[in-house]
DNA sequence: CTGTTAGCGCTTTCAA
DNA sequence: TTGAAAGCGCTAACAG
């Protein structure tokens, strides 16, 4: 009947086949898919019928070419190996879905080892820690700092550029940010878990490390600790910022500052821990730049014969699942990645559609609003219901829009959003 | 000078702008990029000149539409949260790069929580373990088995379908495999770290769990262990297969089989470990389905007052970085993910180009061939150099092609490739 | 409401 | 070698 029609290589049905089969013009078929309401009931039925008799599926690529832009939102993952990023991506994706937008996740990877010279020798670059590199034996060791010369994959960027997503969510620091400029300049971009590159007008959403550090100090001093050391400072921007936050807290509280330099790796934390354990007036507590380094500190302390947490309390950042393991049980700061992802997504949605109206798309039953505490949110979203502390980074901007709130502001502005992290207390401190 | 030309939304230069600027036809510009040799030197120069004066970059999408297929290879990641997959993806990507092919990584994610009913209630589905789900407090817990209803993201698949990659590498088990059938039927597909779906003609490359289990038994019996228990069996196909491998080894060696059911999570391993610790003739060694479960076993044993490894030796599978942490130090089977990724990539390349010739693409200086041991491979590839044990899975197929070997066989066949894993001995056993 | 007409940016015959 | 022209599959005016 219908039969072998166009679609050059593949035997796929094209819009023309459908039009022929239904006895209408291609234009109408197109319309029937895009805006069914504007097509008469009879034809619509005939078209839809023909379409699925032929197994027609509109061609993504052709559509994007013709329509001068696609309907999806691009999520660009800077590093596949950082588990925090995966969490953020998932949360963001869910948020998009809930609003009838759909997102495509693409990932960059490390450059070929024999490739061109490292772009950013010392800047592993992720927020949230966890630069990864090769350890001995080819085992991938998160946090190791060596040779972290990752570049934003040109091809991935090119794909996004040409597919013209409605917006782009960049998760983690992307080295060659210049490439992003290939996007149509009007394309909204939001960074998550990364500071947006200097000079960039794009907002970033990330955990508030200062607040996290304060939480840690409160907790530790509350337990009587007076000599609190910091392990970290190396390995990237995030590490540096956490170090600064530490110094600020120590100073503000009139406490001595004691720093053992380390990056995000366990090895590195181990060395720093050993160093600290040997000190004469030994610190009674240590704050590590991330869980992995904290675990290294624990190991070193144990090895040095210290009892944990009696002789040395250890706390860290990130609340990766490591921290929750029975044998580790690490007190740590939860950056609330899901929240970061969700807010970053909201931010982008707001920029795309300042009215904040929930999108048409597929009307989903459970479509909830961030402001209205959903009735029976499923477990994955449980932690949203708590009132969300929020603060803004950049100085100048007026503290305006509350996302999903009653009166969203027209111009989203470009201020960063800092998500208030949470203290997770476990045995280690 | 040149100025504001076409390219509707964006101000990007199109092939037409270049043609105009260079005073030639668009067809020639196209040719100048695709096959420079067939264009006269003068025009070529003029074209290339004009092109970069205008900052021209060919449009990916338009090209793929016009040329009936793209030049990239698609890497489809089934789960962002499984670190093993990231390793495989990286290795594969490098292999592709080395052969002048380039790959695009796209990821599926979990379905929205409030979405349609779970597809595969009990089938988390990844090879290599590490299904992830929400634990208490919204923390992402790798290995937890609950609600792992991930679906292969339709949009991602649609994108691949329409972009028409030359080939697709699927990493991990993808639930809705039917969607892949949307690809032009001639598109070669290779699965990595997953058994290819039944009835599928696509080969899969994965670690040989039977061999790994044998390695573990050899090691443990060599240390005098006679009562070796297994923790695992639940949570997915891989878990089941490892259980079977365990049973087979135990039987073959005339040893008693003792199984405590668990999935890939630490929690689950903990429970199983507690169970085993309480048994009367206690096992002297435990093999866990993966590192995480093994860590759970360690924790439970410790809690039960057992000394490790004297009272209970623990070994596992996967060699994630966890196993290498000082405080964990777990003897484990390294699935050699990088090798899996590399071989899967080779497999695909072979299918794409049976002559094994290195592709034209951008001619890269360092382009090495799998068969020719490259001179100074950088560290990331260090472990390739060792002679690679290899065996084949599927029964019927003739044992033919050695990848990258001297005489590659014309028809690649569809047999699975099993990569021989490696035993990593640490303190725990 | 519906058909027609132009393209999106690029590749590819096919002649010249 | 080079240019002209005809599409890839779809959308977007614009008339009717």
TrEMBL record, chains A, B:
It comes from the Bacteria. The keyword Cytoplasm does not apply. Residues 109-146, 359-411 are annotated as: Disordered. Residues 391-406 have a biased composition (Low complexity). It holds the Pfam family Peripla_BP_3. Coiled coil: none annotated. GO terms for molecular function: DNA-binding transcription factor activity; transcription cis-regulatory region binding. Residues 13-67 form the HTH lacI-type domain. This is LacI family transcriptional regulator. It comes from Sediminivirga luteola.
């Amino acid at each position: 009947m219908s039969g072998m029609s166009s679609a050059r290589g593949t035997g796929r049905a094209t819009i023309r086949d459908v039009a022929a089969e239904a006895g209408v013009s291609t234009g109408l078929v197109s319309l029937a898919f895009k805006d069914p309401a504007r097509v008469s009931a009879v034809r619509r039925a005939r078209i839809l019928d023909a379409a699925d008799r032929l197994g027609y599926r509109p061609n993504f690529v052709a559509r994007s070419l013709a329509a001068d832009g696609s309907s999806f939102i691009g999520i660009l993952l800077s590093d596949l190996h950082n588990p925090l990023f995966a969490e953020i991506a998932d949360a963001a994706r869910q948020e998009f879905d809930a609003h009838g937008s759909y997102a495509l996740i693409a990932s960059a990877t490390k450059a070929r080892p024999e490739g061109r010279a490292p772009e950013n020798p010392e800047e592993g670059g992720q927020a949230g820690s966890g630069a990864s590199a090769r350890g001995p034996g080819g085992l991938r060791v998160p946090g190791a700092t060596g040779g972290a010369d990752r570049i934003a994959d040109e091809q991935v960027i090119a794909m996004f550029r040409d597919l013209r997503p409605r917006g782009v969510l960049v998760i983690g620091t992307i080295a060659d940010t210049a490439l992003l400029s290939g996007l149509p300049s009007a394309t909204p971009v939001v960074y998550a878990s990364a500071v947006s590159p200097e000079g960039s007008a794009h907002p970033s959403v990330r955990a508030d490390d200062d607040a996290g550090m304060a939480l840690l100090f409160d907790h530790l001093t509350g337990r009587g600790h007076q000599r609190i050391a910091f392990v970290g400072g190396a390995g990237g921007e995030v590490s540096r910022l956490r170090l600064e936050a530490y110094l600020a807290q120590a100073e503000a509280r009139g406490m001595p500052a004691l720093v053992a330099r380390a990056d995000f790796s366990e090895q590195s934390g181990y060395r720093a821990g050993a160093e600290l354990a040997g000190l004469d007036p030994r610190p009674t507590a240590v704050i590590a730049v991330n869980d992995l380094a904290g675990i290294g500190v624990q190991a070193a302390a144990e090895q040095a014969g210290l009892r944990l947490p009696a002789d040395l309390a250890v706390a860290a950042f990130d609340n990766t699942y490591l921290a929750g393991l029975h044998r580790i049980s690490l007190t740590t700061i939860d950056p609330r990645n899901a929240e970061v992802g969700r807010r970053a997504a909201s931010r982008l949605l707001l920029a795309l559609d300042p009215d904040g109206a929930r999108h048409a798309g597929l009307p989903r039953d459970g479509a909830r609003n961030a402001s209205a505490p959903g009735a029976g949110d499923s477990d994955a979203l449980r932690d949203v219901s708590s009132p969300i502390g929020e603060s803004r980074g950049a100085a100048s901007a007026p503290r305006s829009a509350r996302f999903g709130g009653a009166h969203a502001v027209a111009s989203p502005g470009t201020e960063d959003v800092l998500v208030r992290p949470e203290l997770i207390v476990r045995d280690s401190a």
